[in-house]
Amino acid sequence: MKGTSFWKWAVLALSVAALVAVGCAKKQTVKAEGAPGAPGVTEPGAVSEAPVKEAPAPPVVVAPAPPPGVAATEEAKSMFDDVRFDFDKSEVKEDGRKTCRVVADYLKKNPKAKMLIEGHCDERGTAEYNIALGERRATAVMTYLVSLGVPKTALSTVSFGKEKPLDPNHDEGAWAKNRRAHFVLK
Amino acid sequence: MKRSIGATAGVFLLALSLFPSTAFPVLYIDINAPGGKRMPIAVADVVVGPGDPSLSRGIPKILSDDLALTDLFDLIPPTAHMETVTAAHFSGKPLSFPGWKMIGAEAVVIGTVETRGDRLSIEMRLYDATQGTLLLGKRYSGAPGQLRSIVHRFANEIVYTFTGVRGVFGTEIAFTARSGKSKGKELYIVGMDGQDLRKVTDNRSFNLFPRWSPDGQWLAYTSFRTGMPIVYLRNVLTGAEKEVIRFGGSKTPGGFSPDGVWLYAGVSQAGNSDIYRVRVVGGASEKIAEGWGLEVSPSPSPDGRRIAFVSDRGGSPQIYVKTIGIAGETRISDGTGYATSPSWSPAGDRIAYTARSGGRFIVTTVAPDGSGSREVASATDGDCEDPSFSPDGRSLVYTYRKKGYSALKIISSDGRRQRTLVSGLGDAGSPAWSPGR
Questions:
Q1: Which domains does chain B have, with CATH numbers?
Q2: What is the pLDDT of residues B313-361, one digit of tens each?
Q3: Nearest CB to A63: which of B133, B176, B203?
Q4: Parallel/antiparallel/unpaired status of strands A155-161 and A115-120
Q5: What's the CA gap between A45 and B330, in Å, rounded?
Q6: N or C: which end of chain B has fewer CB within 10 A?
Q7: 3-state DSSP assignment of residue A169
Q8: Range with the lowest mean pLDDT among A71-85, A148-162, B385-399?
Q9: pLDDT for A174
Q10: Given A125, A132, A160, which is nearest B268 (Cβ)?
Q11: Which of A16, A20, A33, A131 to substitute to test the interface with B, most B CBs within 10 Å?
């Protein structure tokens, strides 16, 4: 039985191959013009893939624009200074700590306030690494605020990596401004 | 019954494998010989049946432009062609090979095309002009809008015939750029020949890190359109989307496993990014590599058993290779400076990454064991970053950046030839080369 079905399949397969080959070989003379054994349009190698019939490719559907405001691309105004960082570093330096103490006082006096800490990087280096570095910067600031007595529930973080520079220029002055944590009251 | 089907498949494979030896061309191009001899090839005007007469030159132009991208061919200009190909050449009339040889052609391509309603039929043939033999013949049919893709396919066949390695024509590059005056970044796709540039997303938020699924149907990417980063899978044909990674803070998709089951990504929890893999269906996740440092940018090997990724555990970002499921990781960058964004070649033999040299970023490749490091792309006036290999491993696309200017460039993996793929878009970056077509 197994043998029979094998042959059934084999015969079917070969007849399909033959059909396709015949389909391709309407112009029999193609074979005649090459040297013996030259692969013609009828070459069996072509059977497996010819004729190429691709599914029609529908055009790319562009997603409708969301309502304005969710884009997160605009710099949110802040009543607090940014915390600045050194290149490829996430330590909160003394300047930044001073700012953090101001932020912590505010949050302790306003227990209902929720603060989003954005982490940002300068344009140097690859986007992926900078996204992770920005997250680490934002988290370093959050950790310091918690150590000053701010409840963790009042705080959240997001990293924009190098995507959202405060200063669009391409020099050390701009880079220094762009390596920052930015406070946004929610 | 199962066995019978297997046996049937065997018959097919046997039938196919009987012929490559007879089909093995006398003409052959050694792709591993730099500056080796190029194949002089003539692409004749195509015979147009019913249909647009401009295809007569249009099809040879697409094909010639493809072949010219490879550095493997010398194209004989159409003005030198002496023989006019006619419909009779597709029904038995032989080409005048001495005439083609006289103008220097060792290979000749002829073709015929007809459009009936919304059906396009193309027959293309490749001849060895020195032997007068047919090397390759294919008949394609499709919708008129698929013309370019059909010609790209035949160009891939020509490259395969002469080199034994399939060409990459018709593949695409996904990347990110700012759209107009928007501060956001959208996903774009462009053909590897620089044609068919199109915008994929349009939400004016940050849409970052496009990564192709192995079947070329989906892009994984991070979008901030809800205000927080989420990784989505987007069908590039239909625009359908689904969420894949919501947990954690920052998210940087790196690449899919070759079977398409897993998406590898860097995901941060409590500020510390580690490497995870997430099931594309179902969403279950596993941590693959971790440390006190930042771990990002996982790039799976073509056999799916290893990943290359970035970690700054040693004090600066460096490239490490890890076998999945086995403890231990090997650093393959030199440990100095700044090394990020690894891309494992689909050929398996090299890993490209961004290195820092003399204050500039450059593209370097290295063997997966860390040996044989080689600079591929650098510029004295700007940075070369974010490499992604072509499906045949013979080229790389990367970002060139100089102050406010950015462009995507394609360079041969030996660094000898390069061209600009895209320029003029704001802050273009994160290019990802699609799988083979």
A1: 21-163 (3.40.50.10070), 172-433 (2.120.10.30)
A2: 999 999 999 999 999 999 999 988 899 999 999 999 999 999 998 889 9
A3: B203
A4: parallel
A5: 44
A6: N
A7: coil
A8: A71-85
A9: 96
A10: A132
A11: A131
| AA identity, residue B52 | D
ipTM: 0.85
The kind and range of the H/E element at B4 are helix B2-17
Chain B residue with minimal CA distance to A128?
B252
B107-116 and B47-48 strand pairing: parallel
Lowest mean pLDDT among A15-29, B141-155, B314-328: A15-29
Q: How far apart are CA A102 and CA B258, in angstroms?
A: 51
Contact A109, B242 (CB under 8 A): no
| pTM of the shown model | 0.82
List Cβ neighbours of B99 (8 Å cut-off, separation of 6 or more).
B82, B83
Q: Which residues of A18-39 are buried (b: 16+ CB within 10 A; e: fewer)?
A: eebbeebeeeeebbebbeeebb
Compute, in degrees rounded to 10, the torsion defined by CA atoms B300, B301, B304, B309. Answer: -30
In what helix (H) or strand (E) does residue A29 lie, and over which residues does it extend? helix A29-33
pLDDT band of B290, cuts 50, 70, 90: confident
In whole angstroms, what is the distance from residue B284 CA to residue B207 CA? 23
